[in-house]
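Data availability (excerpt). All sequences and predicted token strings are deposited with the supplementary files. A representative entry, Carbohydrate esterase family 16 protein, is shown inline so that the format can be inspected without opening the archive.
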Amino acid sequence: MRLAFFVWSIVDLAAVVSAKWNTTKFLFAFGDSYTTDGFNISAGVDSPVPGFTSSNGPNWVQFLGGTYNITDTKVFNLASGGATIDAALVAPFQPTVLSIVDQVEQFHQILAPKPSGAQWSGNNSLFAIWIGINDVGNSFGRSDIKSQTQFHATLMKRLFGQVDTLYQDGARQFLFLTVPPTNRAPLILVQGPKVAASITSALADYNQQLVANIKAFEAKHRGVITTIFDTRPIFNTLLDMSATFGFVNQTGFCDAYQNGTPDTNTEIPPCAPVSSYFWLNSLHPLFTVHNILAKAIATKLSL
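Structure token line:
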């Protein structure tokens, strides 16, 4: 897989990015199963990181804080698998899941005071937010939502209320990731073209509103730097050219691997090795995809 060439070709080299990865000393991550590594900040700043991911290996935050960590950046990952922006608006799959509202409250209570081990500042910290996969996925077919556009506007108001809380706590540099094309995930494909078309439309609207709100937030808040990383080109290119990049299946997954495997190269016949698949299960891409994503993010933040 020609990773370096692909990353440089997929990153928008014309984009102006002010937040710099080489001056980032602290990374605070918020999100869902695509982001979580099982870290529990409520147990303390120096709590161990279990490393629980949905990618059968490192996820994008771990690659960013590990493989592509160039300044010994310290990572605090507050993400929670299954998270939505606000559980009162879109219920997660379990009531114990921490929404973005909950995650920001944890930050406010534990990390905003800058305890020993997390003595961050606004100019040396990056706040990464990747949320919306479950918000769109769990709401686009709801009969009680008459206008998806209006509902997304409600979600945006709630989300950026949380971003504003982070700003009030001192955050100044933000990285936002768009929702990837989950309309191409096996979970959606098996439901047929009508469902796929419906969520495709919902995803486009959500991402459009997300970008508009990011720009509005930056314009209204002094000293704020925002970086928008669009995940869609990477996902779509890898899926469209799956054979070129060595993926054996871009529309399905191996049942034997869907709950994870003991090794990143586990092979259970008749399936190919787990690392050869794009999707680990019905919704989550493998660590190989996360690696490419992290490399592209590090590249964009270094321009």
